Amino acid sequence: MDPGTGLNFVDRFGEEAGEALFMAGVAMLEQAVARAREGVYGRWKYFPAGEVRKLRRDVARALRLVHEAQRVQDLVNEELRELSRPIDEMLLERARAERRAGTREAERVRLIKHAARREGREATEAELDGEA
Q1: How many angstroms separate the Cα of 37 from the Cα of each of 59, 62, 63, 74?
Q2: What number of other Cβ atoms are within 10 A of residue 69's Cβ?
Q3: Distances 32 to 1, 4, 25, 131 between C-alpha atoms, Å
Q4: CA-based R_g, the chain, Å
Q5: Nearby residues of 75 by Cβ (< 8 Å), 6 or more positions away
Q6: What is the pLDDT of residue 56?
Q7: pLDDT of residue 2
Q8: I need a labelling partner for 110 at 20 to 30 A (CA). Which of 6, 33, 42, 94 fits?
Q9: What gap in Å lies between CA 101 and CA 109, rounded to an integer?
Q10: Is the pTM of this model over 0.70?
């Protein structure tokens, strides 16, 4: 599946496209194992090479589908990352601003306490609250 086809599939089925393909691939694996178990009771005894070939073919098909699911999910995740990048940057900047504001307030309180100790007294609540 070329990337364009993957994007069309995502456009059609939404963000769940990769998960749907993955689950289909897992179901194919389960079906391959179930068929192999059924073959033990008859076909295996007389045609073991054919049963092994059939199992390998079924598993290979299922794994190809699982691989395509991973590629589709990677496309979905990349698109979601691109869409959320401006929001992430805004949230990071807001967190930095809050951190700076907290640092400024802590520095102001530290300086008031230091000045009060230099004068040989304790800083008052009014001074620490910025009311003095």
Answers
A1: 14, 17, 19, 34
A2: 22
A3: 23, 30, 11, 77
A4: 32
A5: 3, 6, 7, 10, 18
A6: 95
A7: 56
A8: 94
A9: 12
A10: no
Q: Which among 113, 131, 114, 132 is positioned nearest to 123, based on CA atoms? A: 113
3-state DSSP assignment of residue 47? coil
The answer, yes or no, to whether residue 89 has pLDDT greater than 80, is no
Do 113 and 123 meet the contact criterion of CB atoms below 8 Å apart? yes
Tokens of 28: 């194919």
Cα(4)–Cα(9) distance, integer angstroms: 9
- Which residues have C-beta within 8 Å of that of residue 29, sequence separation ≥ 6? 59, 62, 63, 66
Q: Residue 83: exposed, middle, or buried by beta-carbon count in 10 A (0-12, 13-18, 19+)?
A: exposed
